[in-house]
Every structure is written in C-alpha cells, then in structure tokens.
Amino acid sequence: MQPPPRGATDAHAAWGVTDARTAIALAHREEWARVVASLAKRFGDLDIAEDAAAEAFAIAVERWPADGVPANPGAWLTLTANRKAIDRIRREQARADKHREALMIADDTQLEPLGAIDDDRLRLIFTCCHPALSMEARMALTLRLVGGLTVPEIARGFLVQEGTIGRRITRAKAKIAAARIPYRVPAPDDLPARVSGVLAVLYLVFNEGYLATGADTDPVRADLTAEAIRLTRLVHALLPDDGEATGLLALMLLTEARRPARVGSNGELVPLAEQDRAAWDASLIAEGHRLVRERLEAGVAPGRYQLLAAINAVHTDAPDASDTDWTQVVALYDQLVRLDPSPIVSLNRAIAVAEVDGPAVGLALVDALAHDPALAGYHAFHATQAELLRRLERPTEARDAYDRAIALAGNTAEVGYLSRRRDQLDRLG
Amino acid sequence: MLYFVSVIDDRTNSGTPEEMVEIAAFNERLRERGHWVFAAGLADPATSTVIDGRGEQPVFTDGPFIESKEHIAGLWIIEAPDLDVALALMAEGSKACNRRLEVRPMLTRPGA
C-alpha cells in the first residue's frame, strides 16, 4: 500500500478511517517528523521539540477514542505540541531565566533558500545526520526524531540496552545545542556531500536490519528495514532530483523484495541462486525497476547506490537464476570499482566474473585480494573462496575456507547455511 | 559563538617555513572575514608545570598533567555563528597548518 503523499486529512477521508487507534498510528507515521521539525524550528531546541511531540501523541491516545478523531489530525497534533512546548518553556523560564539562551540551537531561517527543498523535515534530517555526530548517534537520533521510534524500539533494533540508546540521543542533542550545530539545509556547495552523509546513515540502518548479526537473534529485523525504507522514501520525496537518493531507495526496495525468500523454513540463509523467485515481492520489484529506469533515462553518471540498485535490478529481472545477465552485472561492477575501489566491491565483482569466465578466473581474482587486511576478517571473503574451490573440486581447501567463514559469520542464518555447505563436502569427498 | 581550536601533533616545534607562510595567510583571511580572536603556538608539553593551589601551600609539579603520544601544539580561538561555519573555516586551517584540529565550543558566559 502506498502511503498518502500529503496531509493526513485526505488520507483519512480516502481510507475511511474511523477507528481512533488506527488514526493515531497513521498520524504517528505521517505527522511525527513534521510536528518535531516545526517545533524544532519554532523553539530552536530539539529536546523541547521531541518531548512536546511525544506529549501531544500521548494526549491523542487519551482523547481521540473518547472525543473522536479531529478533522485535521496533523494540525491538532502540532497545536497541542506547541502548547505543551510553551508550557515547558514558561516553567523553565520561571526556574532559570538565563539558562534558556545556552540551550538554543541556531535558527537562521532568513538565510534559507526557498524552493522545493524548503521543508522543515529536511532541516531536521540534516541536523540529525550532521557529520560532527558519531554514526551511532546519527542513526539513533534520526530514528527517534525523524522516524518517531521510541527508545525501547530503537534499542531492540540494535540489540543494545535502552539506557545506551537513551544516552546516545541525549548526548547528541546536548552536542547539537552546545556546539551550535545549525538547524538548516546545507548550502548548495555542501549539499551533495551532506546528502551522501544522510544516505549513509539510512543505508546503515537498513543493513543493520537486513544483515542482522548476533548469536540467537533473528537473521532479519524487519522493523529496521521497514523504517529505513520509510525514511528513504521521505528523503527521496523531499529531494526528488537527487539521483543517489533515488538509487538508494531502489536498492532498498529490490533488496527488501527478496526478503521473503532469503531465509528458508529451516532458518538457513538461502543464496540468491536458490531462492524461490515466486516468493519475491513483485510490487516492490516493479517499483525498484521503475526507479532504476528513471535514473538511466536521466542520463547522468550514476553514483554508488544507483549502480548497486542497477545490479539488483539485473538479478531481480531474471525469471530464473540461470537467466541472469552476468555480463551486465560485471559491466556494472566495473563501473562501481572505478567509483569505489574498496576490496569488498572487488570481491563482489570477482563473484560475477566467476559466473561469466568460470570459477578458476574468479578464484584467481579472489586470491589476489587475500592480502587485504579488511577482507581477512570478512566471512563473505572466505565463503566466496569456499564456493569457488568447491566448484573447482578442491574439497580439502574448500572445507578450510568454510571453517574460516563460519568462525567469522555473525548472522545465524548464514552460519546455518555455511555449515550445511561444508558438511555436504564430506559426502562429496 | 566562540570556538576553541586545538592543533593536534605528535612532535613539537615541527612547523616548516612553508607551513608558517600558509598559517599566516590563513590568519589574515580569518581577520578579514571577522572570525579572528586569538592564535598561538605552544612549547613542548615537557616544559609545562602543573599547579595545585587548592591547599594551604601551592604545589608545583613537573608536567604535563596527561602523558600522551599526541598533544596540543597550538590553538586558535575563533568567532563563528554556528558549527558549520567553524568547521568550514578550520578545514582550511587544518590544510594551512598541515595538522589535525579539534574544534570545541567555548561556554557562553551568562548574560553575555
């Protein structure tokens, strides 16, 4: 189901929502970031904005079932949150007048360029993803202030203590206020670098959900992947001309589409070639393909996310694994290696080359990467070696490589899959 | 808003003549754009003395108070409206002095 593009009023009318609980859940999804962003702009304080928004939603939970859902839930929530914020500021002013000044974050509204990207939510996103904050803080802050996830929800997503997440958020908000991290959309010169910083945060959140690590944990944490997609949709809607934002959204959709087929009933990871393609989400694939085509038609040199999305589009375009256009995949990896010469990209390229030129050529490329310290501790490197050695009928070396991969893999479904592959060697050899 | 900028180094008195020229030019730009407050280089940390005047008699001990591989070799104090401006300026400063820098906000004086 597509989320409604605009104010929740239309959505309510269109969907005929009468149940107050549903209305609150919908308003939370649609309006939270807008309420926080507008309060942050008005009061210049993220702490006040977050608390007042949370209070307004808590009041809605109390009132809406009894009083009925207001005609314009977004306006009701903003108004209620504004009142709560003013109450708090009055209380604090009475207590310590001069202290407020130090808590203010910079708001230079008048310097703002007007236009398509003049949305308070965008300021909020750029502030939460500011490069002066640690990556952990950026993820937690973005999920809390833009995504509206609660601290316990974020803690569950990252498998850390609630107190840790709470402290991360508090510390980040304190730094934003004390160091005066501005609440604004960056200048056009800085925009590409800053957008890429925002996308990096969202991709990390997505991968945290998709490639979940930790013994005895679910191999996929769908709440995180869903939230990452929702936030990337928002960034894409706010920056429709940014090719990399489009690329990242397409990449997430095409990855998420395969999720139903990714873990088998035995809890093992199912590799791409063996997945039941009928279980893939056709509507997500269609949407992802549409976005990839849109970028191809733009005729602008693609960035990293657009290339990764295109590679995923080739895979999801094949009705059967044997139909995969590997030559096209290799060509896309060639482009990606030029943009991102990291050993992990080279490793993935080698896997594609093995499909085109055979496992011996692929293994030679993989072995050439063996000296790289970044790959030595990466389970996928050893798993790739193992698979190629298996195909080359070198079971003893393959078994050693599987052992190394299993020792390094953190994802429970991956450990299950790799162990089974290793044990199959015993039967073969 | 004032920002305190530390120059991070693992050697002392290691500035080259070329770096000195670059730093002087950068300082001139800071002055022209109204960001300049103060700048100075610091002598070797081994030349420092730690003072504890909290007791009846002040106690002086040979410094530095923290032994570390890296230390503060110099400092700037700059005036900037927000952190983005401070970071952009001091990215230039880092290039000029060829060292890593740490930017830290100074506390606002109450009533100032």
UniProtKB/TrEMBL annotation, chain B:
| Any one Pfam family match given in the protein's UniProt record, by short name | YCII
Checking InterPro entries in the record gives: Dimeric_a/b-barrel, YCII
Q: Tell me where in this chain the YCII-related domain is found.
A: 15-92
Recorded superkingdom: Bacteria
Name used for this protein in its record: YCII-related domain-containing protein
The UniProt entry, under PANTHER family, shows: BLL7171 PROTEIN, BLL7171 PROTEIN-RELATED
Q: Which family does the entry's similarity section mention?
A: Belongs to the YciI family.
